[in-house]
Give the backbone structure.
Amino acid sequence: MTKRSVRQPSLSQPRKTRFSSSSVQPNVQRARHTTNERRGSGDDSRLSGIRRHTPDYGLLVAVCALLMCGAVVVYAIGPGLTIGNSLPDNYFSTKQITAILLGIVTFAVAGSLPVALWRRLQTPIIASAAVIALAVRFVGESINGAHRWIEVGGFSFQAAELIKLALVLGLAYFLAEKSRARLMHTPQTLYQIGALVIAVLFVVAGLQSDLGSAAVMVAMIGMMSFAAGLPMKRLGAMFVVAVVLVGLAIGTSEYRRDRVATFLNPQADCQDEGYQACQALITIGSGGLTGKGLGRSVQAYGYLPEPANDSIFAIVAEKFGFVGSVTMVGVFWLLFRKIYSIARRSVDMYTQLLVFGILVWLSVQMMINVAAMLGLIPLKGITLPFVSYGGTSIIFVMVAMGIVFAASRYTDLSAVGVGAGAGGANSKRTHTQALRRRR
Amino acid sequence: MEHTQNRMTLFYWALVAVFIVFVLRLFQIQVLRSDFYGSAAQDSQLKQYEVPARRGSLYGYDGDRIVPLVLNESTYRITVDPELITPDKRPEIARQLADILKQPSQDIEEILAQDGRYAIVATKQPKAIKDRVDESELPGVFTNEIIPQRVYVQGGLAPQVLGFVNDAAEGNYGVEQALQKSLAGVPGRVKALTDQNNVPLLATNDNIQQDPVDGADVVLTLDVSMQRQAEKLLERGLTRAKSKSGSVIVMESATGAIKSMANYPAYDPAEFSAVEDPALFVNTSVSSPLEPGSVMKVLTVAAALEEGAVSAEQSYEDPGVYTVDTEPIRNVTHGAGTRTVSDVLELSLNTGATWLLMQLGGGELNEEGRTVWHDYLTERYFFGVPTGIEQGSGSESAGAVPDPVEGFARNITYANTSFGQGVSTTPLQMAAAVNAVINGGTYQQPHLVAGERLSDTAIDIHDHAPRRQDVVSASTSETLRGYMENVVVKNNQAAAREGYRVGGKTGTAEIANPDGGYFSDTFNGTYVGYVGGDVPEYTIFVRVDEPGIPGFAGSSAAAPLFADISNMLIDNFSVPRVSQ
């Protein structure tokens, strides 16, 4: 894979700071920037030796494009969804735009906080996530037999979103610590990770019946452990255990068995069990090359379940056709490529794992959603990040993006991001720009 | 960390691979197979359905005024979408609905808890209830389904004549069935892309809309107050005669317009679905043929006079019994003697009618006489074919006239027909035939439809051309009126009125046993006649089935009912007096 072809010529050993001593021991050489250190801003740049630089605004562009697309689709189909209930025409779009505005505020706040601060915030976040994860079972609202929501001051709060944030923060810290202490190979680490997987499966898949979110979380645990250096053999063992547990989860619930059976032959039963899968394909397919147009969606009105929410990708595909759906997939790819690049070029293990964990969170969730709509995997009730209607999802995803945005200020600009194969020219230019900025 | 970066890169390229699969799959679904999915979408989304047309109303007369008989009213169906009602809200919504609909709250709550997205809470609710449901603004409760309902503004008048409209908006029986096409109008067509509840989505180019054409408002010839009185008198007359069923027809003599057509027992058309015996729906005046009995003698006399076989004042020697094909023909009350043609009606002589049939054959019962009589029955009196009155298609009976040539024992068969046995007619057929004989000789088409109501002030009167204008000559007609008025004066004094010409003839008909022969103990009483001044105004037919009182059914049961009807017409419906 990629190798660092170019390095900063003046590199030095890291200084121990208040933070580095308690957390991360970077094992890379970093540039020395005494001026920066003197400023004593207290953020990670001091230990990495990398000065705060312009964040990756491209990230913001991609996120805004997706948010806008979601808002436009919800605005277009919202009035139709209010027919038959006593909600006002703009009910859905108003709520969605409110959520987006709140999301932008949380993004701005999270984006301006130093990444290291999240290590201090993780304890209350993890604690509240644990409380809510269990509380939702008892005081939560049951929709279609799944306990996933909790009413907070008139808002339905989706517990899984908070758990994902808590998980990514906790794991990044835990794995970075283990890695620093060179304990990734120990059986104890494996057991701890295994226990976490089982806990997530028990609480999210079991208590909350939210298999989609559980899959995303297990992927986050698996991929982050993998990235942190869990040996392949151990990872393989964990994978086997996970497969067995998922098999058990499917086998013990008739509802899940039906879903799998439906997936294996969705066309056979377009009226009943396979209805949703079949309608999703019809919706996407009827969009054709260029789509039906913004106001001409038909499938949204009663044919396709959750048109503004879990099925919004299909509605986008119906309205804007192949051109639109590929564009949306393309924007997601650009966004993920940027997050990946930031993760790669982050200079300490904690930030790297945190950003990578967010990448896994968002991308696996997006891939499960789209793959389900395309009939590639059994359907899961899971939101499409940024686009789907729903306040909780947007706000927490925007917190995560804020963290990535903050991290993008302290990337090693000399490091090769994506497409390392491109060789020196590109990297050299990046390096030169980096130097120019430092002056 | 390099290790970490490599592993992250692995994930990234896996992601890229998945995205490539997505793009390929999207290409497959949206480009390669887009036609297939597009038509699958259209199949479920494109709905073609009808916008119902308003059904035409029915009107009648009250004297010269046109008054409504049957109108339409919109009733509403109260439905719910159970998915829009959360379990915690069910009791409250059920309570409020129960309060408005006056139904048990528990039943409604069960409906609210049903699976699916559509459930009916109540049907046929009036606008007031619909408005109250709308005002309460209950979530998931709908009142937008309109179900048209017939309203009988004159009460349950003439139900068998009018028929009813079933829940599928189809006319059943009577005028409703006969005029189904023009009353129903032409439904509008809408072809539209719809949501899953079949509500058209407006913003599509594929929508086609064709407005409905409302049904015609039909004016019937019935006079509502005459009909009401006829129904009342019929019921009273039947009670008096201890009979279970019967009918009365009042026809305008000059036009054939049916002014009243009452049948008993009747039913309430507004509650047609509560009727258990479908026989109640049948208009027996046009659907149930019966052997008319002695009322036929009016027509036998008319035929013999018209053919010149006998003269008006002619007398003959009646032997009291004729033996035809070894069967004896006797009179019920009179033996041998010298009789006149007028006596045939006054004394209701079966032998006299047989004698008249002989005269048509040149003095004996033969094929010539039978054929002449048969031609009168079928070509002038129009027996054996439906009259074509506007009643449910196929519901009118043709009756039966025996063949004059083919068959066994034609002479006795035909001798019987001359006094109304072995031949069957509906009450309406008999009324129309007698009407032709007494109104100057014109067979007027019997009809119930006067025309079409175009607006409050305009009506389009339909022409009903006479079937035949030379059934009998004017002088034969006048002679017959003389005979029939004599019958009333002699035998039915209650009907005779100073200053009016009232004529009639009884009939006591044997009832054919389906197993062959006749019942010996039960008879139908019939009476045919007219009331008028210089010319007949109304022709009347009365039928009393199997009266339970002693005496001959015709004279004891039907004659008094006829008198009630004729007096009612004279008293209340401005029959002109005879000019001095």
Chain A touches chain B through 60 residues (CB under 8 Å). DSSP finds 16 helices and five strands in chain A. The beta strands of chain A are 11-12, 30-31, 141-143, 146-152, 155-158.
